[in-house]
Amino acid sequence: MPRAIAWLAAFAFWPGSLLAAVASECFDIVASIRPTYPPAIAPTLAVEVRDHEPGVALFAGADGLDVIRRLIPEAFLPRSYPVAGWP
User: Fold this and answer.
1) Residue 10 belongs to some domain of the structure
2) Whole-angstrom Cα distance, residue 34 to residue 30?
3) Cβ contacts of 74 within 8 Å, gap of 6 or more
4) Is 26 among the domain residues?
5) Gap between the terminal Cα atoms of the chain
6) Maximum CA pair distance of the chain?
7) Beta carbons within 10 angstroms of residue 65's beta carbon
8) pLDDT (tens digit, 0 to 9) for every residue of the chain, 87 residues total?
């Protein structure tokens, strides 16, 4: 098996609201595709983005950080750490 494919085989994807879908899981890394823009920049986005992506996929509060403010504390809940602890 090529190395890149073996590496990807270790990943699992769960749709959900931040870490709610993995509340009973332990993991080493959290990757998220989250909204990052403040709504004020909507007019400056490329038409392909602005007119075809839902607002909830693009905008996260006045400064674009609302999702990050929720994600960081959830990622550091004790259940999030690997069984062996943080390296």
Assistant:
1) no
2) 12
3) 18, 19, 80
4) yes
5) 28
6) 47
7) 15
8) 566 666 666 677 778 788 888 777 776 777 778 888 999 999 999 999 989 999 988 999 999 999 889 888 887 766 545 555 555
Residue 34 is given by DSSP the state: -
- 73 in a structural domain: yes
**Inside any domain, residue 15:** no
Report the number of distinct structural domains present in the chain. Answer: 1
Say if residues 19 and 75 touch (Cβ distance below 8 Å): yes
Helices (H), the chain: 3-9, 47-50, 55-58, 66-75
Query: Is 86:62 a contact under the CB 8 Å cutoff?
Result: no
Q: Which amino acid is at 7?
A: W
Which residue range(s) make up the domain with 66? 22-87
Residue 24: C-alpha distances to residues 20, 29, 42, 45 (Å): 9, 15, 37, 38
